[in-house]
Amino acid sequence: MIPIVLSIAGSDSGGGAGIQADIKTIQANGGYAATVVTAVTAQNSVAVTDSIDIPVSLIEAQIDAVCTDMQVAAIKTGMLSSVEIVESIAAKLKSYDIHPLVVDPVMVSKSGFALLKEDAVEAVVRRLFPLADLVTPNAEEASILVGGDVKTIADAKDAAVTIHAMGPQAVLVKGGHLDSGSEAVDILYDGDSFVVYRKDRIDTTNTHGTGCTYASAICTNMAFGIGLEESVRLAKEYVTDAIKAALPIGQGHGPLDHFFRQRKG
Question: What is the pLDDT of residue 203?
Fold first, then answer.
């Protein structure tokens, strides 16, 4: 049976990131994507220009509609926007107790638009991190979470340890923004040991939705029963190849090609 993966995230009208990237990634990696929309953004390859939150009651109704009817195998969260949304989703996730749960603490868009209100960061840490099997901050998000710069591989390891102490079972610091030379280096920490993932850095500006895609690919792999370390390795390969095949759409940061494998035939 195809595993059902539920994405709880915001909508990207440009289709490159957010729930649209999640759907593409889940389907491209063999899962069936179900969704809960938390916010609707006006967004393209250049910027996020506006956003509106979905009413909490409707978010809760979406979760109930999916989880009472479908056998959800894994859940991934993305843009959650406000304290009220975080609190309501955390309560629902705790009630349904579906694992694995991958929490991507989406905070700021590439253009600098706040996707998580400042007072909601603490709510994500307090309510969602303890429920998570994996938390996947990028270097900038890790910096916010630990209250200090995360620029090097050593910084990323230190940040992973600090974030792990906030409650999740494991932490993956996504290293696309790290000072790591010609390689894109990610750090996985499970409370006992580190695993370092390395791939050649790709010279392109078409990287819109990379973080959403990476977290969704990991979550989909885990939904198939694949172990965490291997799920991250496979997702890293998928994201790297999707960036290599990235689409020059729009006038800013174009999206990854989530269906590069299918196009190869």
Answer: 86
**247 contacts: CB under 8 Å, gap ≥ 6:** 206, 254, 255, 256, 257
**Residue 182, phi then psi, degrees to nearest 5:** -85, 0
Q: Which domain holds residue 47?
A: 4-264
Catalytic residue among 24, 174, 175, 219: 174
Residue 111: what pLDDT?
Answer: 60
Contact 262, 226 (CB under 8 A): no
pTM for the full predicted model = 0.96
Confidence of residue 200 (pLDDT cuts 50, 70, 90): confident
Judging by DSSP bridges, how do beta strands 183-189 and 101-103 pair with one another? unpaired
Active site residue 207: yes
d(CA 66, CA 119): 29
**Residues, the chain, total?**
265
Active site residue 213: no
CATH number of the domain enclosing 243 = 3.40.1190.20
